[in-house]
Amino acid sequence: MVAGLYSNICDRPCVYLMNQSLESTAALLQRVADDDDAAREQLYRHFLPIITRWAHGRLPQYARDLSDTHDLVQVALMRTLDRIDQFEALREGAFLAYLRKIMLNNIRMEIRRVTRRNQHGINDTEHEVQDPEASIMSKVIGHEVLEQYEAALMTLSKKAREAVILRVEFGYSFDEIAVATDTPSANSARMLVSRSLVRLAEAMDE
Length: 206
What we know:
This protein has 206 residues and is mostly helical. The chain is 65% helix and 0% strand.
């Protein structure tokens, strides 16, 4: 069940730049930490469409109608790049997991903002709020299951959590996960994901 949580939404949103001559994400992150504006711009252009597509599945339709998802993502991405010196591990998996966390917080704030707007007497039947948490995700798999998934993720180690997020939510291949998590090979990444999904399922059952 866990592996299929996002199967109806994550339509292979990203293809990592593994076969190109550009620097790895880890190298670019290090350059950003060293105040390299060119590396910052390169990472910004690469990750903006990836996290925008991810966020679109998280924001309820009524919230997407009242705010620009692209703007939310831009702000989150810029702030994450600004805080890159706080990262313990300058790798793509850690970067995306951190960015995802910021985006989740921003989305929850946006949902609360729109809900308060509705509750303070702004009558708009087109954007009437039936369920403050009714995102595409919660509609597809159920809000309770989504909450269990988020809680179970936090029981995993950082690297295991990154691997699950990259595979399940961002649709990374095992080759891409290996690079993004500093795992020796695609096969090692496959085993990491498999073990992590088993632990995740056990935590959700609990």
